Amino acid sequence: MARWRFPDGFLWGASTSSYQIEGGNSAADWAVWEAEGRVHDSCGAAADSWNRYAEDVELAVSMGLGVYRISIEWSRVEPEPGHFDDDAIAHYAEWLAHARARGLQTMVVLWHFTNPTWLTENGSWEWDEAPARFEAFVRRVVPRLAGNVDWWATINEANTFARHGWLTGEWPPGKRLDYPGGFRVYARLADAHRRARSAIRELLGASTQVGLTHVVPWTHPAERGGGFSAGCIAFWDWLTTFAFLDKVRGEFDWLGVQYYYDSPCKTLHYDIDDGTPPRTDMGWRIAPEGLYAAVMLCWRRYGVPMLVTENGLADAADAQRSRFLLDHVAWLHRAIAEGADVRGYLHWSLLDNFEWAYGFGPRFGLVEVDYETFERRLRPSGELFGEIARANELPEGLRPDLRYADGQPSLAPNPDAGTP
Ligand code: BGC
Fold it and tell me: CA 100 to CA 67: how far, in whole Å?
């Protein structure tokens, strides 16, 4: 590989999710959660992508992206148990066909956090019928969308969902420190993944490649060179990553690795706020080398083809996103140079959207959205991302930084990738 060039056919793309961008999802459990005043914003029309998807697609095309990710809103498709809205399914089919006609590959995630209210009223993902209900939904939508989907994924971030719904209580169903409940959710979501994958393969052919997406934090010693417990890191890696993925090991054909921040670990403390800059608008640490670490962790353990399916930051001023992109993508380049089979990088997010418990404040988009007019505008970092995508390499003269924030080289130099 030439310096900073990516393999031929490497896919550059951007991700979104249904509830966060579409608007009008009043049958979702999150709509009830907001109505109860649990979030200071109400998602309402979101970015109105349900009506403006063609604009979103055009923005992806204008950046020269190769793949575009959406998810299917279960609560819209099955607002009442067993009652399917075929017009909604047809709308998704048109949306995906349009993206395909504009030359994009499409990635569909079948479940991205939100649930029909009836599911949550029955115990959410602790309900023993949840996996079978999900399978019925999958069997209904998959044949209708199939001709226009390149990448199927089942479950997005079981770990984030269980964490916020059963430990922090920030998301529906709002339980706190309920570890047994959280593990029941892992088991049900693993079952849902297996059932969905089998259904897709039965419907579309046994060789259909079905993946899932998972956020993988990089847990590492809080103090370089000591003062940590290896057991503590192993525990957090297990809790956040392996406890769920190991349940479906051997049953996913590709893995979507999602990485946002590192977690310095000291004894049993996790995600220590040591005041180290730089941080995002949400206070998350920026540690690009963690993308390398997360990818290598998964590559060594699971050995399946991977895509980075989310990586990004809240940055309303767009002051840090270009640097963030360059550095993360450079670390990904190193992982590939060292043998990890990574087929693509999708940024989170294509456009500003509803950031769950934080509402509309955080701005994750390569594209800025005006929530009054729904006007979209490509940010300068989006232009840079387009430049990278079109060239399939990092631009000459823009040098990524392969160091820790403290200025020390974090890994031995890689002769293929070049060093700062
Ligand atoms: C989720 C997205 C979310 C993003 C930023 C990921 O965990 O899949 O829905 O917006 O992180 O918090």
Answer: 9
